[in-house]
Write a structure and sequence with these properties.
By secondary structure, this protein is of the alpha+beta class. It contains 7 helices and 9 strands, in the order βαββαββαααβββαβα. Strands 5, 6, 7, 8 and 9 form a 5-stranded antiparallel sheet that branches. The chain has a 4-stranded antiparallel sheet with strand order 2-3-1-4, covered by helices on one side. The longest helix is centred in the first third of the chain and has 19 residues.
Amino acid sequence: MASGPPRQSGVTTKPGTHAHWVGLDLPDDATKDELRRALVVLDDAAARFVKGASPLPDVAHELAPRAGDVAIAVGLGPRVFDLDGMRAEAPAWLKPIPSMTIDDFEKPWKQTDLVVQVDTDNPVTVSHVVGQLVSALKGTATPRWQQRGFAAGARPSDGGVTRNLFGQLDGMEQPNVAGTEAGRVWNAAQPGASWMEGTTGMVIRRIRMDVDVWQSLDRTAQENAIDRRLTNGAPLTGTKATDPIDLEKTDELGLTVINPAAHVPRAMPKKTGERILRRPYSYEVARDDGTSDRGLVFVAFCADVVRQFVPIQQRLAEADLLNTWTTPIGSGVYLLPAAPRPGRYLGQDIVEA
């Protein structure tokens, strides 16, 4: 039996402690030829970096990552499927997340035609790789926004999970993508769209966090808003992070131990197949007034954004105690093509469908 197409890195590979995202737009009058040029350039440069080499224009060879040290993923926004000459049709889920009452989007962080994600453990490497990729695309695709993220090295006592700026263990519930739940992330070939095999959906949400106010709360209030203990991530109804969440358990007053509006109960999958793969990173950007904008770059991967991600986001918007201290300020949805087979460029099966 023939194996499926290779998959892009940066999805199920181990996340680096530093990441950088760049949102880019093609010209307003672009055709599929401009998309092809952009993907050929990205594919060549990314492949060289991943192998530990440098793209041809790069003279700072000493800054190139060692082979296997960097993961690079490229995503396509909804508009590229409407470019003149494109015959491949976008999957129904490739569209903006519906507007939510909690959203307060800011102009820079909009949906783009392309997104590039670079992650590794070395921040200098991230900066160098991103700079070279953007430079290679000059005249073909224009950067609209850039975002850097960082993640604390996970301590063994935290079960390999990193903490966000609220001190919360973030990304504890993940699908088993190496086994029975691979289909939660990776798509199979579909009738009339064999190129869908090995693709995945990528959602990027930029979420501002009011860290200063959060830190003024006592630990009980913080834990009740999340429904997990800050020490080890255990649910309030258990002692270990792996203990199941008991939404029916009551205290001595007859009240449920877990507030149904707490973050974890609202984010829990309600239907089979809703589980998503999360790669969260923190961010901090200095403001001109001496303060800083801090928050979370929430990146999620799933096979069908509408069926898996949107229901969870809608429940969080309807009633999540964390909404008091968090505000989504940006959002984007992308399709990550399968990694190219030898002799082909990234996304060729889509562009030349």
